[in-house]
Structure formats: structure tokens, C-alpha cells
Amino acid sequence: RLERLQRIVSKLQMESGLCEEQLNQADALLQSELRLLAAGKAPQHAAELERDLEKADAMLRALFGDVQALKDGRHPQGEQMYRRVYRLHERLVALRTEHSLRLRAGTPGTAVTAVTMAARARAEPEDAALRYLQELLAWVEENQRRLAAAEWGADLPSVEGQLGAQRGVHQGVEEFRAKIER
């Protein structure tokens, strides 16, 4: 039993490292896209960025399942591994939030570019506020769609892993709420 749990720890260490690399890649793409937007250009790798975020999300779901197996087996490193995976999940939520609020706000077809939006905001404050509100609503609707399409586990460890992931999403929503209240 202890040997099996130790293999899970090794697997978690390796796969959390891979997940971190995936998040680093997504972050680099996001920053590149934001620089393009700041220069008044259209994003060029939005689809690739979305794929990277989805891949990291899938990796985290599997990691949460493994972490739950450690916690169920009362492995001494269970809590430590949970914190590591949870930090990765928080980073994913932060990247998704930034992607939704900043990058999508500037993509043609969704809204005007950031430069044009700033110019219009000075000329038409009510229209800019309305557009911003529409972008925020689109973010909420996308998260609702993602939750509705999410698969649910058939066993306790996978359900508990998904619960951990959901807690991370909930924290992102709470941070989003604080921004709205500001």
C-alpha cells in the first residue's frame, strides 16, 4: 500500500512539473498576445492559448484525483501535494481570468481593440461601461458553459478531485466579484 502511494507521489511530482510548464507556456502566449493588443494589433495565437489552458485544466483534474488518493491513503505528503496542485489550479484560474478580462476584451469581433476602447471610453463613457459590462457577462456565461459541460466523476476520489478544482473556480469568481464591486 505504501509503495503504491509512493508511486503516486512520484507521478504527482513529475506531472505537476509538466503542468507548471504548460502554464508557463500559456502565460508566455498570453503576455505575447497582450503586447500585440497594446500595440494595436490583433492577437495571433488565441486558439493555441485556449488549447494550452484546456490542456492544463485536464492535467489538473487528473492531479486532483491522484492527490485525493494520497489523502484517502493518509500518506504523509498528501497535504503538501494538495497544496502544490491547488497553487497550480489557482494559477490556471488567474490565467483564465486575465485571458477573459483582458485578451478577449481586445479581440476583434468580441469588442474593439484596447486602444480604440480607451479612446471611445473618453468620448462615450456610457457606451464603454456598457461594452465592459457585456464583456464581463460573456466571461460569466463562458464559465457557466464550461461548468455545465464538465464531466462528473463516478467514484469518490474523482468527485473529490473535481470538488477541489471547483473550489479554485469559486475563488476566481469571488475575486471577480470583488473587482465588480470596486
UniProtKB/TrEMBL annotation:
Q: What is this protein called?
A: PLEC protein
InterPro entries, from UniProt? Answer: PCN-like_spectrin-like_rpt (IPR049538), Plakin (IPR043197)
Any Gene Ontology biological process: hemidesmosome assembly
Q: Tell me which domain of life the UniProt entry assigns to the organism this sequence originates from.
A: Eukaryota
Give one Pfam family, short name only. Answer: Spectrin_4
Species this chain originates from: Penelope pileata
A single GO cellular-component term on record: focal adhesion
Q: Which GO terms describe its molecular function?
A: ankyrin binding; cadherin binding; structural constituent of cytoskeleton; structural constituent of muscle
